[in-house]
Write a structure and sequence with these properties.
Helix content: 25-40%
CATH architecture of the largest domain: 3-Layer(bba) Sandwich
Number of helices: 9
CATH superfamily of the largest domain: FAD/NAD(P)-binding domain
Structural class: alpha/beta
């Protein structure tokens, strides 16, 4: 491999990385998008539910990667009483159920069509520093080492970002800020295609069980559990199998796929830029700490990241101070909700089943224009004020 030079390097071709690369290219930068795997989007490690409100903002057009368009979500208490909410109020995780590998590939196609060069089977192995600033990376492609130099490098390599650590940014997570997740794709199940379903309580300690319908009696049935509340990551499968066994509409189904992985449920990262370097998406802890969803946030931040990267190249200024435009921009858009949801998560994970039952009971018949912590607690306070005392700061 010969050493390379470009304007912007993006490490990781997930949604946030591809959107970052696309917008940097659209604003005039030469961009290299690196993916360590041989195929973008595989293996899938996602529940595959997204909202549709934000996709136009980042230039994504609905396509063949959509399996089902759902009407909303149903949230089940431990006693199985159900709260139905529509797509408008349900947050970032309902609207479409998708084929995530096809979705990721389409975003990479969009980036390539904007002029981005995509390099598969290419892993970053370190960062290059000169005079205290990052000026590129070392990499391997098909086992061959080489260097890529650029004034701007973007880390989009997932939670606990390795390249972020090499750049000197704190990306390690505490166990209480991680969920371990497992998901089956199942056929022959009785999933209602109108809704994404979420089950709360001790069926999934510190997390929830989800059912995302994919049509024709196929659904993703998965679980996320807080790492600090289980003895082993393998316990996620035990809890999920136990839940399936108790629900005949799913117990009769057959598993045709299984995926697993980790998700951050942490507070927003304290620093996402340094000289010549930015973090975006899951690498910058933009995952919602309550839902575990990060696709929308990563893509929204990716648009801004790409625009700022191109501006830094154009102005010849890759300093940390110049890149603050990105830091301030994504925080203004996302940080308050992420931080408030992290604070709420810290309390929610310790609630007993009886309290979840009361919460869902209190919300029956209440019209929530927006499903957020503040609105939920206000409604619960009207019926069960005693269980909202610990959450007074949110009111």
């Amino acid at each position: 491999m010969e050493d390379l030079k470009t304007d912007v390097i993006v490490v990781g071709a997930g949604p946030a990385g591809s959107v970052t690369a696309k917008f940097a290219a659209q604003h005039g930068a030469r961009v290299l998008l690196l993916e360590k795997r041989q195929e973008i989007g595989s293996p899938v490690r996602c529940g595959e539910g997204i909202s549709k409100a934000w996709i136009g903002e980042v230039g994504i057009k609905p396509g063949r990667w959509i399996n089902v368009e759902v009407e909303g979500a149903r949230i089940y208490a431990p006693n199985e009483k159900c709260l139905e909410i529509n797509e408008r109020s349900a947050g970032n995780e309902v609207g479409y159920v998708i084929e995530r590998d096809g979705f990721d590939k389409q975003l990479a196609i969009d980036a390539a069509n904007a002029g981005v060069e995509v390099m598969l089977k290419t892993s970053a192995t370190g960062v290059i520093r000169e005079n205290g600033r990052i000026v590129g990376i070392t990499a391997k492609r098909f086992g061959e080492p080489f260097e890529i130099r650029a004034p701007i490098t973007v880390g989009a390599d997932g939670f606990e970002s390795q390249i972020g650590r090499w750049a000197g940014l704190p990306t390690n997570l505490a166990l209480r800020d991680m969920d371990t997740c497992l998901q089956y794709r199942m056929t022959g199940v009785d999933a209602d295609e109108r809704y994404c379903d979420f089950y709360l309580g001790t069926c999934a300690p510190g997390g929830y069980v989800w059912v995302f319908p994919k049509g024709d009696h196929v659904a993703n049935v998965g679980i996320g559990v807080q790492v600090s509340q289980v003895k082993s990551p393998a316990d996620a499968q035990t809890y999920l199998d136990r839940w399936i066994a108790k629900h005949p509409g799913y117990a009769k189904g057959k598993k045709i796929d299984i995926v697993g992985g980790g998700v951050s449920i942490s507070a927003p990262i304290k620093q996402s830029v340094t000289d010549g370097f930015m973090l975006v998406g899951d690498a910058a802890r933009m995952i919602d700490p309550i839902t575990g969803g990060g696709i929308a946030n990563g893509c929204i931040a990716g648009k801004l990241c790409g625009e700022v990267a191109a501006a830094a190249v154009r102005d010849g200024d890759a300093s940390k101070e110049f890149l603050q435009a990105y830091e301030k921009g994504w925080r203004a858009r996302l940080e308050e909700k992420l931080y408030r949801n992290w604070l709420a998560k810290e309390k929610l994970v310790s609630l007993p089943d009886a309290t979840f039952d009361k919460v869902i009971d209190a919300l029956q018949g209440v019209k929530l224009e927006k499903l957020n912590v503040h609105n939920i607690l206000k409604a619960v306070h009207e019926k069960y004020p005693e269980i909202t005392r610990e959450f007074e700061a949110f009111l």
